[in-house]
Fold this protein.
Amino acid sequence: MNLLVTGGAGFIGSNFIRQRLTEAGSPLTRLVNLDALTYAGNPANLADLAADPRYVFAHGDIGDTALVTRLLAEHAIDAIVNFAAESHVDRSIDSPEPFIQTNVVGTLRLLNCARLYWTKLPAPRKSAFRFLHVSTDEVYGTLSLTDPAFTEATPFAPNSPYAASKASSDHLVRSFQHTYHFPTLTTNCSNNYGPYHFPEKLIPLVILNALEGKNLPVYGDGMQIRDWLYVEDHAAAIWLVLQKGRVGETYNIGGLNEKPNIEIVNTICALLDQKAPRADGKPYAAQITYVADRPGHDRRYAIDCTKLQAELGWAPQENFTTGIAKTVDWYLTHRSWAADITAKKYARERLGHAG
């Protein structure tokens, strides 16, 4: 298989690529990673795999039709996994337009290029071709404490500009399958965590702020509930859906770990108390600070992944206890990775002020 991965230098994409290139008996002949290297795209995530002869990095945007068209033909691509997206809710509230440009317009252009390429493939390759679109549970809106978990049949009700842009891209993918019979698959996942997670997201932010003696900001009352999915379990599920999923179908991927944000923060603090105690002997929980809630903050997300489990036999390998311990250990041994991101962030800010 020759595989095109878009957004593969980001958090989930880089974990997916790492898993595909290091697994025993991988069927990949070529893996092309197309990434625009915006703020969350980091080549360091895959630096140790750069010498793998199967791996090709292409710097560019999914909205660049000439580039995408060339990559598809040049590398005889057999499948596409689309991770490319603007994905931070707070950033979408501050500035929605980049989310529409990447998540909606970019996905449309990628779909158009892929469909035109697919129509010209010889029959055996055409029937085997797949386009897998990676999306989020946020397209479904919010749940009360007593609502059943999101299923693939839950109506879309996005509540942030980010969620609205992802819902739009999901609809575009569905329309290409229905109108053109283009062989698409869609996955909607719950909150991911694990290695290489960009430091502005909750779990890495808490770990790194704690170690640096900074406040640990918690929105509102901290009782917003999320279903937490270890990123390697997510990557394995995507690969399974790509290989065995039914064309045109959506599969929800959940970690089966519903927890309020404040419990996540306290769990991380307790782990750090054991693994890297503060010099003054005080608990890291003393750094917790409650801040004004995010505008329109969804109260609860929960994923029902029964369809994925029943049809394809998937199950997460990590529960939250094992997954969060692995995650904390990873950040403790990769402090330089996060420090490099912080240094680049400040360098960009200085450049912006100078301009």
User: Anything to note?
Assistant: The mean pLDDT is 93. The longest strand covers residues 130-136. Residues 2-193+229-254+300-318 form a domain with the Rossmann fold fold (CATH 3.40.50.720).
